[in-house]
């Protein structure tokens, strides 16, 4: 039986705001970008990749934005 499946999202940091599921304009702004793949039921990170530089203080905010988007995708797919 299938117990869990991977959901993924991008996230970025634009003008001191953490954003999930970046569009082209947000990606082109040149801020740091993060790709996160999550096993939502177990809350385990399967992949975490980042392009660009980001201060350590902001890492939790951007990661949580991506995790929230993954949980939202999971909720829609489980309906």
From TrEMBL:
InterPro entries: ExoRNase_PH_dom2 (IPR015847), ExoRNase_PH_dom2_sf (IPR036345), PNPase/RNase_PH_dom_sf (IPR027408), RNase_PH (IPR050080). Residues 4-67 form the Exoribonuclease phosphorolytic domain. It comes from Python bivittatus. This is Exosome complex component RRP41. One of its GO terms (molecular function) is RNA binding. GO terms for cellular component: cytoplasmic exosome (RNase complex); nuclear exosome (RNase complex); nucleolus. SUPFAM superfamilies: Ribonuclease PH domain 2-like (SSF55666). One of its GO terms (biological process) is U4 snRNA 3'-end processing.
């Amino acid at each position: 039986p299938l117990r869990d499946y991977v959901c993924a999202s991008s996230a970025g940091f634009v003008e001191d705001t953490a954003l999930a599921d970046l569009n082209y304009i947000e990606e082109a702004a040149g801020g740091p970008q993060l790709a996160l793949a999550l096993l939502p039921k177990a809350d385990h990170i399967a992949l975490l990749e980042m392009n660009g530089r980001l201060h350590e203080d902001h890492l939790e905010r951007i990661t949580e934005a991506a995790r929230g988007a993954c949980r939202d995708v999971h909720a829609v797919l489980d309906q």
